[in-house]
Amino acid sequence: MIVSSARMIPLADGKPHPTGYWPEEVLRPYERFIEAGVEVVIATPHGRSAQPDPWGLEPKFAYPDEAEDFMGSVIRSFADDADNIRITLHHLTELNLIASKRIFSALTAAGLEYATARGLIEAAAKVAWREDRDLLDVLEEDAQVNGVLTRDQLDTLAAEVQADSAAEARKVAEALDSIDGLRHPVDLDTLSDEQIRGFDAVFFPGGHGPMVDLYENPHVARVLDILHAKQAVIAALCHGPAALLAAGNGPDGVWLFDGYKMTAFTDEEEEDTPYGQLGARWYLETELKNRGAVFDDADAPWTSHVIVDRNLITAQNPASSDAAADAILKRLEVL
Q1: Whole-angstrom Cα Rg for the chain
Q2: pLDDT, tens digit, 9 for 90 and up, residues 225-277
């Protein structure tokens, strides 16, 4: 696992901004690899300890899985065509849609039939989504909901979800801090060709850090050249595919991954981040296309998407973390 050790990223405003690896994209795959019995070696440029992006440790990125899954199913209920439902971080984190499951459970506990409660949640969520309104405000206006749950109760349920998210964010930070390989990684620069040849796979997690210290790194290029030559698994997640740009040309004189179908964090998703809004100096999707990638993204942003083309596995965004890890394990024939 080659992890960025970048701490700052320069943006269009000329100022350095904190960055690093994306917590979920390191922790979720790492835990899955270890559970599967895979030996994981973490390396960074210059052997510097890796830093999680502080933004990625905010509670809004640590929602409980069951809350996220239920919210996703509610959104799909009114998305007859995914292209008609544009998902942004604002929708996912600022409209209290994440409280859908907790409210649904409260409605059914109060005596409503499952189908009735589900219908109320889906109808309110559709209004909240279309009109850019808080889900709790919409539900409060519904007489059937109002007869079962007060606004204070709705607020309490939403606050409980946020408290669970804050607790989960703390657990993620503690889990990452306990991984010795992140605090004392192998120095990528000092790995010999023979040592590199001994690996069965290389995985590049994302975060904006790879756009600082991996995309032009000659030692990353060496890893890619050596492992690609033996058709070992090469995998990258979210901004991790920036590392693929470090690769030189193959035997036919074009970029090593020219013509490969792949995905990565999209330009649309980038525009939704503070980095894009402050002015990213370059966009990953665009640069991969310029180099010769056949780019393929999900029907809707911020949803899981994984592409496998020959020995290359790429995944689009943090939501793809588990699926990316599973794809790697399947190719290694340990899942």
Answers
A1: 21
A2: 999 999 999 999 999 999 999 999 988 899 999 999 999 999 999 999 988 88
Burial zone of 134 (CB within 10 Å; 0-12 exposed, 13-18 middle, 19+ buried)? middle
Eight-state DSSP code of residue 319: G
Q: In this structure, what are the phi and psi dihedrals at residue 110, rounded to the nearest 5 degrees?
A: -85, 0
Longest dimension (CA), the chain: 71
| CA distance linking residue 20 with residue 31, whole number of Å | 19
Q: What is the pLDDT of residue 90?
A: 85
List, in sequence order, every residue forming a beta bridge with 16; answer none if it has no partner: 10
Q: State which H helix or E strand residue 287 sits in.
A: helix 284-291
Partnered with residue 295 across adjacent β-strands are 262
Residues of the chain predicted below pLDDT 50: none
Reported as a single tens digit per residue, the pLDDT across 185-227 is 999 999 999 999 999 999 999 999 999 999 999 999 999 999 9
Say how far apart CA 99 and CA 102 lie, in whole Å.
5
Amino acid identity, position 141? E
Residues 6+ apart with CB under 8 A from 65: none
